[in-house]
Write a structure and sequence with these properties.
Length: about 290
């Protein structure tokens, strides 16, 4: 594992070659915004999820009439990616299909994670090239944890998630074992605001759809805020380790949802997976910025 660094006049960003995972987003004066992976709470920081998001029934799925095993959130998070480009404000990591990936996912592909600092905004791009002769079916998403409170003088409960526009979201309800069950209406304060409380996550993540694709983690008491924008993702989850007073919140933009608890997932039939034809390229970009 190697750690690579990029920076601009406001932010210093570190990324690990393991999973091309963000390891740090800090200000030039040293303030850390990214959760630092305390193993006593949650050892992750910001895993990249591909080619599936969350859990599969029995830890298996079907593709081309054959069954394959895959762990939660796919295999990228546990694999070394090659850094193929490194500039002052740009990092590009690459994973090519290999014997280990083919045993779990029978497609030839190139998966790229690109980090680029642009005017104090960190853009994260997922690029998937289908190098196979068959259609690819895949999900992907982000899973960054942010330190909350952002200001150490404030409390976790001083913060809220505030969407950029009023909305009437739907919440994806999970079963006890965190599989998709159904969707139901979910109320926000003033149709924009989700106040943060630790017990929000006692039953795992809150995953919403039908929401604006821009949000702030912010406090009415002032100080800095973290903005996350995800224009190409239909779902966003909020999570920290259940039944703990964990000092962070994950904001998880996803293109797709977990599997069904009671039946095996068939990739060709799962409607929210991306379908990418041979020779085609898929790109999805989301971003993180600090305001205030």
């Amino acid at each position: 594992m190697m750690i690579y660094t990029i920076s601009d006049e406001k932010l210093i960003v570190e990324v690990s070659s393991l999973g091309a995972e963000l390891h740090s987003i800090r200000s030039v004066d040293g303030h850390e915004y990214l959760w630092q992976g305390d193993p006593n709470i949650w050892s992750g920081r910001a895993p990249n999820l591909f080619p599936f998001v969350a859990r599969l029934h029995g830890g298996v799925y079907s593709l081309d009439g054959n069954q394959f095993e895959m762990k939660i959130h796919g295999f990228v998070k546990s694999m070394e990616l090659n850094c193929v480009e490194h500039q002052d404000n740009l990092l590009v990591f690459e994973l090519l299909a290999n014997a280990e990936t083919l045993a779990q996912y029978p497609r030839m592909f190139r998966f790229v994670v690109k980090y680029e600092l642009k005017e104090n905004k960190l853009e994260i791009s997922y690029i998937v090239e289908n190098q196979d002769s068959r259609t690819m079916f895949f999900g992907l998403g982000g899973h960054p944890g942010f330190n909350v409170p952002i200001d150490p003088e404030q409390a976790f409960e001083d913060y809220s998630v505030v969407f950029s526009e009023p909305c009437r979201p739907k919440r994806v309800i999970f079963s006890d074992r965190v599989f998709v069950d159904h969707c139901e209406d979910y109320s926000l304060e003033n149709d924009t605001t989700l106040p943060l409380k630790h017990d929000l996550f006692d039953n795992d993540a809150i995953v919403l759809t039908n929401v604006p694709h821009s949000l702030l983690i912010t406090s009415e008491k002032g100080g800095q805020s973290i903005r996350v924008e995800f224009p190409g993702m239909d779902y966003v989850g909020f999570w920290h380790m259940p039944k703990m007073e964990a000092p962070y919140v994950c904001v998880e933009p996803w293109v797709s949802l977990p599997g069904d608890e009671y039946k095996e997932t068939v990739f060709e039939e799962k409607e929210d997976l991306i379908r990418l034809e041979p020779g085609k390229t898929y790109i999805n970009t989301w971003s993180v910025s600090v305001e205030g």
